[in-house]
Amino acid sequence: MEYNLDDIKKSLLEDISSLTAEQLKQKYLSPNGIITLMFKDIKNVEVQKRKEYGIELNRMKQEIEERITNKSTEIHNEEFKRTIDPTAPFDINTDSQKRPRILDLKGSSHPIAQELKKMLDIFTSMGFDVLESRQIDDDFHMFESLNFPKGHPARDMYDTFWTDENFVLPAHTSTMQNRALRRFAPPPIRVVLPGRCFRNEATDASHEHTFYQIEGIYVDENISMSNMQATIKEYLEKYLETKLEIKMQPAYFPFTEPDTEFVISCPFCKKKGCSTCGYSGWIELMGCGMIHPNVLTAGGIDPEKYTGFAWGVGVDRLVAIKRKITDIRKLRDGDINFLRQF
After folding, report:
1. Percentage of residues in the chain with pLDDT exceeding 70?
2. Which one is predicted more confidently, 134 or 95?
3. Cβ contacts of residue 142 below 8 Å, gap of 6+?
4. Judging by DSSP bridges, how do beta strands 129-130 and 189-198 pair with one another?
5. What is the pLDDT of residues 59-82, one digit of tens each?
6. What are the structural domain ranges in the chain?
7. Which of 7, 127, 146, 305 has its CA 20 to 30 Å from the CA of residue 298?
8. Is the CB of residue 244 less than 8 Å from the CB of residue 238?
9. pLDDT value at 86 more than 50
10. How is domain 111-339 classified at the architecture level of CATH?
11. How far is CA 232 from the centre of its chain?
């Protein structure tokens, strides 16, 4: 049968405003829908009218499809508005007029980000460059360039996460030492290397499997342990905003020689003993030492002419000490009530 286009268009205008998207689709575009049947019936239209009939029919089909799309989008948007947002700073039943506007909601940076910026500002004021660490690296930069030959038992101290392609998540920001020595050569080289580290270990109030660290290296002629002590002490006193006593005690790291642990007097109890320092009056803060000649050689630096020192300090631990945070895991557990304190 031949349909009357004018009657169909009139009916369509009414249906577009009154029917849902699904109803429009069913009535007009389904296998037995009006538009579908009109296309099938086009062969019965007079030849001289067939072209105009087909053009008008396509226009109607496009109009229906656009309207169906628009109606579906409107429904989706309404459903989205009704979706519960667990991060919203108000209850779902709060009257819309009483809800805070987006412009009224103030964000803040994470305490680690806040403190990391302060640390880097101190180092740049001391003449250090900054080179950010990577979050995935290779065996050469993680071990071999740092004097860990293949099969060396000291590799077990830095048990970390590996990919199937034999890439590694850095267990320390020392992975950047080789790159820094080459990028900032020739000496003097003064650079700090902030970044995230990953270790396959159990967590507790003072340990995390993921944490931030700042590596520092200083290479030049006639650099000694006394230069290292003075540099690190100056940084810590500026950051912790107090005078400190320091001690050096033996340690072992394949990439430094000699190797030491940097120990500071507790800035809170002044060596009287408190929960922060385990009632010892002292805090073992970081590993450090003179850069091993093999590491300098791997970085293209002549160890006969130059010496240098390196250190690595956990940012999270320093932040916990300064902010008096008793459980380091709180810095990553996403507790909004905890973070609002900062």
Report:
1. 89
2. 134
3. 148, 158, 160, 168, 170, 171, 175
4. parallel
5. 888 888 888 787 777 665 565 555
6. 5-98, 111-339
7. 127
8. no
9. yes
10. 2-Layer Sandwich (3.30)
11. 27
